[in-house]
Amino acid sequence: MSAHHDMNGHTGHERAGEADRAMAQLLELDAEVLAPYLAQLTGLLAQRVGPGAARILDLGSGPGTGSLALARQFPAAQVTAVDISAHMLHRLQKQAAARGVADRISTVEADVDEPWTKITEKGPF
Question: What is the CATH number that goes with domain 2-120?
Answer without folding.
Answer: 3.40.50.150
